[in-house]
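User: Here's a protein and a ligand (protoporphyrin IX containing FE). What would the complex look like?
Assistant: Let me lay out the input and then the predicted complex.
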Amino acid sequence: MPEGGFQEPDFFTDHSVLLNPYEPLKDVRSQAPVRQMESHDFVMVTGFAEGTAVLLDQEHFSAVIAAAGPTAPLPFVPEGDDITDQIAAHHGEFVGHETFLSFDGPQHSARRALLSRLFTPSRLKANELYMHDLADQLIGDALAKGKCELMHDLATPYVTYVIADLLGVPEEDRPAIADFLAAAPLPGAVDDADAGASLAPLAEKIGGIFAGYIVDRRANPREDVMTDLATARFPDGTLPEVQELVIIAIFLFAAGQDTSAKLIGNSARFLAENPDVEAQLRADRGQIGPFLEEMLRLEGSSKVTHRLTRKSTRIGDLDVPAGKRVVISLSGANRDPARWEDPDSFRLGRPRVKEHLAFGRGAHTCIGNPLARAEVRVLFDRLFEHTASITISEEHHGPAGDRRLDYEPSYIVRGLKELHMELTPAAVRAEPKQDDVSVS
Ligand code: HEM
């Protein structure tokens, strides 16, 4: 019999939880915002203050399992109150150890610094111009048909091509890379939870292409982003191995593709179900940014991240021994009533909404967050420019109030598998007649 009659939801195998994770998260939080789970040996944090504290605390928590997830076995048996040396000795055996997300402290910051030249304001500005044109083109294609399956026709190709542009991938190679990425498994599949978010399958498919770019740019430097990446050095002046840069480039796709595409889908669904909000944004597109922040809080596409307790400590009121895996429920923290007033309601312009944890917090805060925010904002801006309305296809998803919508079977990613939409073009603006043009 479960403790106190509480039936613990299973976030890994129960498909009904995928459809609505928020009620089960509320149930777990009402037991305790930091809870030792019964069905799995990890601590789940659903409180905002507690989750933030863990993410900010690098002394007691390691990100080594951030990608591996909470169910993959540890490659060693934790010993004592401080397992720092064990983590270091076994780092290479963790799922996802290749990505810089899995490193801590100076090793992490040295790798993260390699990307500093990609995310400069001027580079992001240039990337934004590309987003604008790309969005126009993809929306134009969808409008020609009057409908689209938003996730595959628009959101996924859009975000993949934007990252390809940011990295300076030659245009002729982009379609092949996009095809590989579209076929890649989603991180955190509930039916294969131990696989976590390994980069190995992707690295196998497209690693060679990126290694080619980096070797070429080192031999023949050019004025392009790939050269910046290929020639970037660690803070101590050493040049990274080619493979290290290849993994970083692939990781940008892996970390930024599904997350951004699913945010587009979650936001489009919300707008189609809430025409009053859609009308507000159409009337004042300056509200798209605040709208997206509230969507990130309510329906952020990364539900969780994970940490391994490095030194015995406390989280909230719970003692946590070294070696304990901790699941930080970003979705739970973002709806914690102790932090957010009326947390399940949508409020445009909610005060300090940008404090949500949708992009994490602390040393590993999403490095792509300015890009993600810009690309989704630009896409909706262009969608409003070119359409008079966007509606969910009743043929595919049923009528309002009785929709059939499938969410991805992932405990990490929150997002729709498909979203069929009908698009009505914006009224064609009349060209001024010759007589109307005043000539001075
Ligand atoms: C809506 C879109 C996105 C969401 C919700 C999101 C979410 C997150 C979260 C929660 C983390 C922190 C993980 C942790 O602390 O364990 C993270 C890290 C990261 N994200 Fe994003 N992300 C998004 C888009 C992107 C994009 C577009 C890129 C790149 C082009 C990107 C690249 C990264 C990288 C490289 C990290 C690791 C940072 C580090 O370890 O220092 N993300 N992301």
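Summary: Strands lie at 34-36, 42-45, 61-62, 147-149, 304-309, 313-315, 318-320, 325-329, 387-392, 420-425.
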